[in-house]
Structure prediction request, 680 residues.
Amino acid sequence: MPELVVKSVTMEYGTVRAVDAVSLSFAHGELTALLGPSGCGKTTLLRMIAGLEAPSRGQILLDGADITALPAHKRKFGMVFQSFALFPHLSVAENVAYALMIDGVPKADRAARAARLLDMVQLAGYGDRRIGALSGGQKQRVAIARALAQEPSVFLLDEPMSALDAKLREEMQVELRLLQQRLGITTIVVTHDQREAMTMADRVVVMSKGRAEQVGPPQDIYQRPANAFVADFIGRTNFWDARVYGGRLMMGDLSLFMTPSANFIDGAPVRAACRPEKASLTAPEGAANTVPAKVTFVRTIGPTRDVHLSTPLGPIVVESPVTADSYAVGQVVSLHMPPDAIQVFPAEVAA
Amino acid sequence: MSAPEAELSADFAASSSSPAPVRALPRLPIAKALMALLIAGLCIVPFGLIFAISLGHKVEGAAWVWGFEGANYQRFFVGAMWPDEVSSMYLQKLGYSLYYAVIASVLAVLTAFPFTWFLTRLSRAAQARWLIFLLSTLSLSEVFVVMGWDILLSNKSGLPMVLRELGITDWAKGNGLFDWARSQGLASPRDFKFKTSVFATVLTMAYLVWPYAVILLYPPLSRIDQSMIEAARTMGATPARVMRTVILPTVRLPLIGAVLLLFVLLLGIYVAVSVFADPAQQTLAISIYDEVRGATLNAPFGAAQSVILLVTAGAFLLMGQLILNRRTT
Prediction:
């Protein structure tokens, strides 16, 4: 049974609709990532779930009970803020024990639980330190321990990694995921970093312009994006405009096959897409879906290489493993896009 | 510490050990000498002169002469007739200076705090309008403000009249409140009476420094991270609890600092005290004026009182600094 349900929740600021009739359910123990660009409404949705903002319309249910009008201090969902929001006038242990102090837990019990939580986030022995004496990663762990101290039914994190450097961020993503799995707590993470969402989440909600564009497991979203926006936002994608005739894509004299064939009426304008890693420059002899191209730029990034091409479809990037083959700028090559690598979206919802 | 944290710390250490490219100020000995001269001219020389004058003595029927004696200080603490007679009149005046300044500064900060807090919750445009209004009130002189309060608290046309006309005076007479006000010197046998009273003195003094209190509290309150308040709310704290456990402790130092600063400013208030305080409850500032320019004309004794007032202010500032230091470590 889903633990937390968001039903047609809408948030309007004057004439601006920040969240537009979003309906989602969050299963018990699952980690869901709200993913989208800045201003897509993901943080507003999280704040409404926390009780920090009241929705203009819609309902929020917890185990069937309507908590839409319940203020934040009565919901007591643990929340980690982007800035960590630690209290500078309290020590690390006092920060962690804050919720317990509010609950009236005796001082000795508070200290013991704070010590256990600090141990859990690998900060044993840091209890007496001042907040200002901690590094970014340590502050984040304190914020996590503090939010978990009240043993919340729902754990919310608003861009928790954005204040950390790239290396630490990746480590903390894994650490946080392991901790969440160990505790089995329903968790919602807001992020604009698709890599972060892919690393941590059981389920990803891709948001744009206040709407949930697609909901599903990370790999499903990557492999089968619901629309051009999702395809563009999750991973890298080559896009070009085309028309559909007889289930094939037509671009001037060029014709490309797809598997399955495009289910559009003849002449329909579409937005076609192909992931860089699915295109190749080594087409089998006489293969279909081959497009003449010219190399414009080559970039080698560790084990892979990006070859930027100028083609009749427009600029295309091909990602391939670094091999003995080398490509020079200006070289004429054959771009091959397998029929099952091409995805087609209606032109009107193009991002 | 885990490996990444150790790395991070090492990075921080490396970055902090390399000196930042700070643009050195040009060495201008003349500019430095001028600055030293300015400080000496504006602060040290006047204070030195006052101190030197305080060691002189008045010549009856004439002005005063330089000297090197502590008679004026002795007179301040034990009276002119010591050892035959001990008088603490000037210590009492100092006591009233401290009493009014403490109450008025605390009152100003206590009332300015909620106002400033709600001010920081308003839109930027509304905040700017309020701040401009408050800054403009600073252009009013002490004399002008005191005149205004003099009218507001006057027995015939001010607050006592309003209370009488509204029937509050009669109501207070019926429930014993009027008798209590009389015992506090805030009522005559027939009406409420605020002139002269500690209430009117302190109220006017607090009003005089109120805009300063707002201006002093505005920066720390507007800098409070909103997410700290929200974090406390998600952890079960009611708005009142958030105020008590997060906001007030966060701005504790600016609050104490504001009280100290206003207290020192209020030690020297003259017009409000001379108008609203009972003659027997007037402050050292009034006494200093009397000695220097007023009826008694005894510049060395006035200078000695000035030095004592300055040292008292300094002692309070030092005490505040010690308290702040102890609380931050």
In short: Residues 236-349 of chain A form a domain with the OB fold (Dihydrolipoamide Acetyltransferase, E2P) fold (CATH 2.40.50.140).
